[in-house]
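Renewal narrative, Specific Aim 1. Our central claim is that a sequence can be written position by position from structural information alone. The example that follows is taken directly from our test logs and has not been curated for this report. It begins with the structure tokens describing the chain, in the order in which they were read.
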């Protein structure tokens, strides 16, 4: 998928890593972040995406965005939750390969800079995971990504949201159940930090968007001025 965005992404400007964090192959002199083979495994979002949520579609708005109220002003993603990107996110989350957070956050940074005016953002926050899952995994992947993104964009990172009840694992639920499962599952922490802020909300995967939508709604209710979303991966529209 060759597009403006893809070419932009190839201009990654990172200090050299000795070997590819995804496949372990030693980098050649021109390779940075991921090796070129692993970059080729990613299905980057090209020029066909929903103008509201960033999901891959040939329509202006995807089905979900036509049917549901969205509280974030825009959401965008790096690539499709498939092929290489799906694999790297799984390795990061379930195989303890935290070294993947940096090159993945590098991609997030490039996309955030491409889609959003960074000087019109005040801070970065992220979707929290439940305490029990944090203990089991040892880290929150959304936090790792957000922390690196914040440092590259030179924006402050703030913890603004907390989970109030553990939700069943999203991937194990059917679409309709997923949409219902998120109602009232977050609360605002540090409300005084939210007022008047233009927030960039980070998560790893955008599926139906129910998670980031709920979080955006709470942030706006707590006085945020605007919420934009950036995720690594997104889905495909149900109608083409
Ligand atoms: Zn590689
Ligand atoms: Zn959409």
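The sequence written for that structure reads:
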């Amino acid at each position: 998928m060759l597009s403006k965005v893809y070419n932009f992404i190839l201009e990654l400007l990172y200090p050299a890593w000795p070997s590819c964090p995804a496949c372990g192959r030693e980098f050649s002199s021109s390779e940075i972040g991921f090796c070129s083979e692993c970059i080729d495994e990613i299905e980057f979002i090209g020029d066909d995406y929903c103008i509201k949520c960033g999901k891959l579609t040939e329509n202006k708005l995807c089905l979900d965005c036509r049917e549901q109220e969205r509280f974030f002003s825009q959401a965008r993603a790096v690539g499709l939750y498939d092929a290489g990107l799906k694999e790297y996110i799984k390795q990061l989350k379930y195989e303890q390969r935290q070294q993947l957070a940096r090159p993945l956050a590098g991609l997030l940074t490039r996309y955030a800079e491409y889609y959003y005016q960074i000087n019109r953002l005040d801070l970065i926050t992220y979707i929290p995971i439940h305490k029990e899952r944090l203990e089991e995994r040892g880290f929150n992947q959304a936090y790792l990504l957000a922390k690196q993104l914040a440092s590259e964009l030179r924006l402050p990172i703030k913890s603004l949201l907390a989970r109030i009840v553990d939700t069943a694992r999203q991937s194990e639920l059917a679409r309709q159940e997923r949409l219902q499962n998120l109602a009232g599952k977050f609360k605002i922490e540090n409300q005084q930090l939210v007022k008047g802020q233009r927030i960039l909300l980070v998560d790893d995967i955008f599926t139906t968007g129910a998670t980031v939508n709920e979080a955006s709604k709470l942030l706006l209710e707590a006085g945020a001025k605007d919420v934009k979303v950036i995720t690594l991966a997104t889905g495909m529209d149900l109608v083409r």
